[in-house]
Amino acid sequence: MNRVGQGKAWYIASRNDLSFQRDFYGALIKQLALPRALAIDLPPGVVVQRRTDGEQAFLFVQNFTGQVQQLSLPAGLSDLIDGSVVGGSLVLAPWGCRVLSVPLTEGTSL
Question: Transcription: is it a keyword of this entry (predicted)?
Fold first, then answer.
C-alpha cells in the first residue's frame, strides 16, 4: 500500500485465485464503506453500475454470462429505452444489458 495525496493505492503484481480476490476487494469495500449500486443479491456474472445526474439514478444492469438471468428488483424503476415500468422480476438475456432509472427523492433507497 502506498499513500497518494490523501488516499491510498495498492499495486498487485501477482496471479491470485478467486478467494484472494473476494477477500482483498471485500475488505476494501468494507473499509471504505462503499455503497452497493442496487441492494439486491445478484447471480454470478451479473453486475450493476450506478450513475446519477443529481436528479435521477441510472442503473446499468449487465449479464456477463451465456445464460438467461433473472433478478428481483425493487419497485419504481423505469427502462430508459421504452419507458416501461420495471419492478419485481427482470429477465436478462445472455450477454444482455438493461439501463434503468429512478428519480432521486428523499428516502430513495435502492
Answer: no
Asked if 107 contacts 74 with a C-beta cutoff of 8 angstroms, the reply is no
Phi and psi, residue 57, nearest 5°: -100, 135
Residue 106: is its pLDDT beyond 70? no
pLDDT digits (tens, 9 = 90+) for 33-68: 988 888 899 999 999 999 999 899 999 999 999 999
Which is more confidently placed, 108 or 2?
2
Q: What is the 3-state secondary structure (H, E, C) of 22-64?
A: HHHHHHHHHHHCCCCCCCCCCCCCEEEEEEECCCEEEEEEEEC
Handedness of CA 30, 34, 37, 40 (dihedral sign): positive
- Cα–Cα distance between 73 and 17 in angstroms, integer? 31
